[in-house]
Amino acid sequence: MWANRLRNIVRKWVLKAVFKLNDSYAEVGEVQDFIFQERASMSEGDAAKMTVSLKVDQKTKMGIVTDVKNALRKSYALKINYSATKRGEK
After folding, report:
1. How far apart are CA 82 and CA 4, in angstroms?
2. Per-residue confidence (pLDDT) for residue 89, from 0 to 100
3. What is d(CA 90, CA 77) in angstroms, rounded to the nearest whole number?
4. Element housing 22 (H / E)
């Protein structure tokens, strides 16, 4: 019985993706609000040129990246820049 409870807790923890938006930790559900707030604080010209940069660690699961991309798509943040380091670099 306790093994099943532990398994459920671990599943919930793993499924909860936490990452950084600027300097604050966030979850996927917070991406849309963040993008809308950032756009609202910009001039109309800058908002039209807004590009989101994703710097993803090589150990990050693609499912998390896909979830973030879908949230960005829903908030109409369609210009995305990806950055990474070469293998072996830190």
Report:
1. 39
2. 63
3. 29
4. none
Q: Which DSSP state fits 19?
A: E
Is residue 52 within 8 A of residue 81, CB to CB? The reply is yes
Per-residue pLDDT for 14 more than 70?
A: no
For residues 31 and 78, give the distance between their C-alpha atoms in angstroms, rounded to a whole number: 13
What residues contact residue 53 under an 8 Å CB cut-off, 6+ apart? 80, 81, 82, 83
How far is Cα of residue 24 from the mean position of the Cα atoms in its chain? 12
Radius of gyration for the alpha carbons in the chain, expressed in angstroms and rounded: 16
- Tens-digit pLDDT profile for residues 37-69: 999 998 999 888 899 988 887 778 888 889 899
